[in-house]
Amino acid sequence: MKIEPVNIFFSEDDEAFITTEIKKCLQRGQLSNGDHVEAFENEFATYTHSRYAIAMSCGTATIENTMRLLKVANKEVIVAANAFFSTALGPLLAGAKVCLADINPTTFAPSVEDLENAITENSVGVILVHMGGIVTPELPQIRRWCDEHNLWLFEDCAHAHGSLHEHQHAGTFGLAGGFSFFATKVITSGKEVCSLPMMKMLRQRRDSIGISGSRING
Ligand SMILES: Cc1ncc(COP(=O)(O)O)c(C=O)c1O
Question: What are the coiled-coil residue ranges (predicted)?
């Protein structure tokens, strides 16, 4: 059996809408940032019931930027062992050591016990991946365990647009969540990406890193 890797479909209505909006950008000469990105951020925040949504260049950048803001250099970040390479790359680029946590084969995510086996005195946080959009039912226990151990929780939601745990959107359980809008993802935008930081500090600091300080009060 031959399985096609991906077959991305745009309806005629979608095509007409996209080309009209792209034309507006070309006519205005604003090819990045601006109204469209702001509308995207606002709509994604509303959709996920998040306080903020922030567009970045790619899903990997949501992880790396958050890690830099959290000052993880020379610390340890626990990453689910079934993650995509980018999940570990974010903390590595920010200077952290990555400590892989095994997963529970029935949830595709680490259980609290797996995290217990991975934590050390240098651990500062946990990056979970909602692999294939599946949110582990143990998420509330994992969140509680992180709180008890003074660790932050970051959710890699590259596959999890619209994924829920008891009516709450993936990406809103921890400190922040990073989404990818790469061409093969659940929702694509070419390459624009969104992070859902739960803390205002992250939003303000990200603005100063993300667009070279040009949107520091944005
Ligand atoms: C689990 C996971 N995390 C992060 C990423 C990185 O996303 P991006 O390609 O937008 O940088 C991907 C991309 O495939 C992914 O699958």
Answer: none
